[in-house]
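Slides due. Your pick:
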Amino acid sequence: MQKYIVKRLLLAIPTILGAVTLVWFAMQLAPGDPAVMFVPPDFQGEEAEEYLAKVNEKYGFNDPLPLQYLRYMRNTLQLDFGTSLRTLRPVTEDLVRRVPNTARLGIAAFLLSMAVGIPLGVWAAIMRGTWNDGALMVLALIGVSMPNFWFAYVLILIFGLHIPILPPSGLGGFKHMILPTTVLGLSIAGSLARYSRSSMLEVINHDYVRTARAKGLAERKVLIGHAFRNGLISVVTILGINFGFILAGSVIVETVFAWPGVGLYLIDGISGRDFPVVQGAVLLIAIAVVMGNLVTDLLLVYIDPRIRYE
């Protein structure tokens, strides 16, 4: 197991570097000059051009692209993500301040998706072929089909405007988390319910389940102790994938709800062509996704001891 973990961590390095490299080159292809934001609005003509040239020289924007890329990768390997071009603060400090906010939102949404999606999927499998099964799968399909931004605006209109019982945006106490957590969590709960149902239907008619029933075990023990645990194997895999989806979805949700997390920080960086911010945020998200997949693989070993990694 230790060899497997080390191997996966080593394989994660080129994945993370590849993601950062793609984003770096994509930002270079974006139109506009990031140094323009430094020029004071009252500077015109030659004065503005001279100031722009000084900014490009200071931040190395005039250097050849290969040199800029190598310098950035060297700094990244030293965990130095540079300084934000907009706020002039170290990107690392901004990320450290925003990561807990994104973590709170992501963990809450992850727990909500499991609390809603898995029980609905299991219940639909038990009630397969009935109108309950059909109704639950229709609800799951609606949850999968709804765009996050549309669902977010609907909840804001209902609970923030027409029935103003919840704050529509910003960071605060528990009430501020309800709407963004609901949007993120329910968008994942729909797909989780469908996979949970399929997994349970695969194992519920296996021989060991019928044997457990024949031995006189209560139906609750048969479903939870035998069928549910084996059905969790594919569900846990989907949970690992959805962890990445939650991080990706948080970019949109945090923007809509003005939640000061990594997602909103990334959007602000993209809109302002703030290279260090975009690259630092993408690197952090890539690391989180890779680690989430690693944890998922280790959980599969615990759930199903037949799985062994060489």
